[in-house]
Design goal:
By secondary structure, the chain is of the alpha/beta class. It has two domains: 152 residues, 3-Layer(aba) Sandwich (Rossmann fold); 67 residues, no CATH class. 32% of the residues lie in helices and 26% in strands. The protein contains seven helices and ten strands. The chain has a six-stranded mixed sheet, sandwiched between helices. Helix 4 crosses helix 5. The radius of gyration is 17 Å and the shape is globular.
């Protein structure tokens, strides 16, 4: 599924974000990515969906070589990866239905398939009755559920969740985690960057800790390991 071998990433300003990372994540895993701000988590994530390119090393995702990949091949890679952000990134003037449908329109699904799939994923995240609302009419938790629905609309093999509960209250955060667990149970690999000690210590999964561009801990059913 995901394999990194001696991956290094140095930015033009000289900052070394990753410094020799090697890791393997198997299909169907649920992995927490933890570490202090600036540790290299964001770069780790961006390399996986080819927003950034490694300076050296090898990265393979779903059998594809991301280091040698040409830019014209990147859109096909991203069809297999869903991404959920802390700040939702919904299109503010589109309805809930239209926000999710947009992910299917860009890959040229038929109108009939789009209608069916959009309503299926909205039902999965508990928002079928709010398909005609716009984002400003929803709570933060509801907006994040729309973002999740959009991210899984194309049946991705991999879902990257970058601080998906960071802007949410505790009760809503647990609702989002329940949905992510259900998605993972269906076979989707999930990598979740998080600063939530309570979530990591309660829902035990594999924990990969990054510090100063290095993986310092890789622990199955691990704990958060930092002061929140």
């Amino acid at each position: 599924m995901i394999e990194m071998v001696d991956v290094k990433k140095t930015y033009p300003n000289g900052v070394i974000a990753l410094n020799g990372v090697s890791i393997k994540i198997e299909p169907g895993e649920f992995v927490y990515l933890v570490g202090q701000s600036g540790a290299g988590k964001s770069t780790f994530i961006k390399l996986i969906f080819r927003e950034e390119v490694a300076t050296s090393g090898e990265i393979r995702v779903n059998g594809k070589d991301l280091v040698k990949m040409k830019w014209r091949e990147v859109p096909m890679l991203r069809r297999e990866i869903g991404v959920v952000y802390q700040d939702f990134k919904l299109l503010p003037k589109l309805t809930v239905y239209e926000n999710v449908a947009f992910a299917l329109e860009v890959v040229e699904e038929s109108p009939r398939q789009i209608r069916s799939r959009v309503m299926d994923v909205l039902e999965q995240v508990g928002l079928k009755n709010k398909a005609r609302f716009i984002p400003d009419e929803l709570s933060g938790g509801e907006q994040q559920r729309v973002a999740i629905a959009r991210a899984i609309a194309n049946y991705p093999k991999l879902l990257i969740a970058d601080e998906p509960t960071g802007n949410l209250d505790p009760e809503t955060s647990w609702e989002i985690m329940r949905i992510l667990e259900e998605i993972n149970a269906s076979g989707t690999t999930i990598i979740m960057a998080t600063h939530s000690k309570e979530i990591v210590n309660t829902i035990r999964r594999r924990v990969i800790a990054v510090e100063d561009g290095l993986i310092v801990r890789d622990q199955y059913r691990g704990d958060y390991g930092y002061e929140a």
